[in-house]
């Protein structure tokens, strides 16, 4: 929270101020009721001190323009209006998210692995959308992820975002606990910097604090910056987090930007792979202009032929289900599949014999007429042959041709979600170590397929390194190698020791 006192809400035509809902370094956020159309909006208002500083108004206008370019995305807070109040203060009217931000949530509750993965994929699609518009957020953190009334995340606060390309340097406005190491110097930042901050945000959601924060320790800005630049990413310490998730976060927070996923979409697909590994519903990556189907369609999917639905079995009911009152006995007497229905459908009612129309007589126990067994057998055979002929015609569709099976794909249908999920690459089979007689070892392996890279972790090393070669020289006695597919998914680790 800022040391200053919040300013009073401006009087805005068509809006009614309700209450203060947040304050930052250069703006206050108020809840307003818009009159036409009637709805609640969050109003971000630039404070007088920022206006007096000279650059605040321009930065505020830039933020409005940047957010307007990408706010149609379902996981980016939407901007409705940008204007200047009668008292001269610029304001943004934005979509109101009534839930707590994810930093408050992470401190109050232990979020499940499933929710963190789902939120990570959703935010990765939002960040990727911004990057494709040449916008780099530069301040992704849990407090900038809001919760809507429908419990979906919304990325906000593009106040220090850059729309001038990935080579823009930054010197101020950082949130140190979630910023990448290169942001503290003069190195260029871009997509990989946002990927780091997104991974650090997911880390916070899992453990309730930023990655390099020490509970009860020295968490001053200088101490945090030193640990971010030098220390390996601390272990999560949660037994329910799979090792694959921890590895993905480690790589995304690598000290060297070149070792991280190249894009936010690649990072999101890695999270999808973990969802698939845990047999969770796979969260779709919401990216404009990309196919959202889990499986590829074949020509047969596009034709107009009639589809044959599954056959419903009708089971004859015993005569003791019919009472003289005309009511079926307890549903417990019905077969199990009829009582429960299929996929939540209503129970199947028992059939009853009805009295002739106009009759006042009560229904009596139904007695089936006698049927000649030979006639029944002949009729049954004829009906069976007719059914087989009809099914063959409908299913075959083209005479005696055998329909070709669908081609196997690298996608899996999962609970109605329709975002493609790539298959993880095979791991390295064996690592061979050669002693270089100078205290170092050369570890080498065979690539399991073309167009893959590798993540190498050394025992006692500073962190994982992403390389394209199939060998590495190390002074460690053991290394672990993981295969990285072009989709960004990572294989299981293979360990090799000298």
Kindly describe this structure.
There is one protein chain. With 498 residues, the chain is an alpha+beta fold. The chain is elongated and about 75 Å long. Among the domains are: 81 residues, 2-Layer Sandwich (Phosphorylase Kinase, domain 1); 176 residues, Orthogonal Bundle (Transferase(Phosphotransferase), domain 1); 67 residues, Sandwich (Immunoglobulin-like). The longest helix has 24 residues. The strands form 4 sheets. A 5-stranded antiparallel β-sheet has the order 1-2-3-5-4. The chain has a 4-stranded antiparallel β-sheet with strand order 11-10-13-14, with no helix packed on it. A 3-stranded antiparallel β-sheet has the order 8-9-12, with no helix packed on it. Helix content is 27%, strand content 15%. It is built from 11 helices and 14 strands. Helix 4 packs antiparallel against helix 5 and helix 4 packs antiparallel against helix 8. About 23% of the residues have low confidence.
Going across the biggest sheet, name each strand in turn. Answer: 1-2-3-5-4
Question: What's the pLDDT, averaged over the residues?
Answer: 75
Distance N to C terminus: 53 Å
Structural class: alpha+beta
CATH class of the domain at 102-277: Mainly Alpha
User: What name goes with the CATH superfamily of the domain at 102-277?
Assistant: Transferase(Phosphotransferase) domain 1
Rough outline: elongated
CATH topology of the domain at 102-277: Transferase(Phosphotransferase), domain 1
Name the CATH architecture of the domain at 102-277. Answer: Orthogonal Bundle
Residue fraction in strands: 15-25%
Biggest sheet character: 5 strands, antiparallel
Helix share, percent: 25-40%
Radius of gyration: 32 Å
Poorly predicted runs:
164-172, 293-371, 394-419
Query: Could you tell me the number of beta strands?
Result: 14
The H-and-E topology, N to C, reads as: EEEHHEEHHEEHHHHHHHEEEEEEE
Summed up, the helix count is 11
């Amino acid at each position: 929270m800022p040391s200053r006192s919040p300013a009073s809400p401006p009087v805005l035509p068509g809006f009614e101020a309700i209450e203060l809902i947040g304050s930052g370094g250069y703006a206050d956020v108020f809840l307003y009721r818009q009159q036409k159309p009637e709805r609640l909006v969050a109003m971000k208002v630039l404070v007088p001190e920022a206006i007096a500083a000279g650059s605040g108004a321009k930065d505020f206008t830039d933020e409005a323009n940047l957010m307007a370019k990408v706010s149609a995305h379902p996981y980016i807070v939407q901007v409705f209006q940008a204007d200047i109040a009668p008292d001269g203060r610029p304001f943004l009217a934005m979509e109101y998210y009534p839930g707590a931000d994810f930093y408050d949530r992470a401190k109050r509750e232990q979020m499940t692995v499933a929710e963190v993965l789902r939120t990570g994929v959703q935010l990765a699609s939002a960040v990727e959308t911004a990057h494709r518009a040449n916008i780099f957020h530069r301040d992704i953190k849990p407090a900038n992820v809001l919760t809507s009334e429908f419990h979906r995340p919304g990325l906000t606060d593009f106040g220090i975002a850059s729309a001038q390309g990935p080579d823009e340097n930054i010197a101020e406005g950082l949130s140190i606990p979630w910023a990448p190491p290169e942001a503290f110097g003069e190195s260029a930042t871009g997509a990989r910097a946002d990927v780091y901050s997104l991974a650090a945000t997911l880390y916070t959601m899992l453990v309730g604090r930023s990655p390099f924060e020490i509970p009860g320790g020295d968490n001053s800005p200088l101490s945090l910056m030193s640990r971010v630049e030098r220390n390996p990413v601390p272990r999560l310490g949660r037994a329910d987090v799979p090792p694959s998730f921890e590895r993905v976060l480690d790589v995304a927070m690598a000290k060297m930007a070149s070792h991280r996923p190249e894009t936010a979409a690649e990072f999101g697909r890695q999270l999808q792979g973990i969802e698939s590994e845990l047999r969770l519903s796979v969260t779709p990556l919401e990216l404009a202009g990309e196919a959202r189907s889990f499986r590829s369609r074949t020509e047969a999917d596009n034709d107009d032929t009639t589809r044959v639905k599954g056959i419903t079995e009708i089971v004859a009911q015993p005569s003791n289900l019919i009472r003289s009152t005309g009511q079926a006995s307890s549903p417990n007497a019905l077969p199990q599949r009829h009582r429960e229905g299929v996929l939540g459908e209503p129970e199947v009612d028992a059939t009853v014999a009805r009295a002739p129309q106009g009759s006042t007589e009560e229904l009596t126990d139904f007695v089936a007429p006698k049927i000649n067994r030979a006639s029944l057998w002949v009729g049954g055979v004829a009906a069976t042959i007719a059914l087989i002929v009809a099914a063959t015609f409908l299913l075959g569709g083209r005479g005696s041709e055998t329909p070709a099976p669908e081609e196997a794909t690298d996608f899996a249908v999962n609970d109605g979600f329709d975002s493609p999920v790539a298959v993880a690459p095979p791991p390295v089979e064996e690592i061979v170590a050669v002693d270089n007689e100078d205290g170092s070892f050369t570890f080498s392996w065979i690539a399991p397929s073309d167009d893959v890279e590798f993540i190498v972790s050394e025992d006692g090393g500073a962190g994982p390194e992403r390389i394209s070669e199939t060998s590495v020289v190390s002074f460690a006695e053991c290394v672990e190698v993981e295969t990285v597919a072009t989709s960004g998914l990572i294989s299981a680790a293979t360990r090799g020791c000298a």
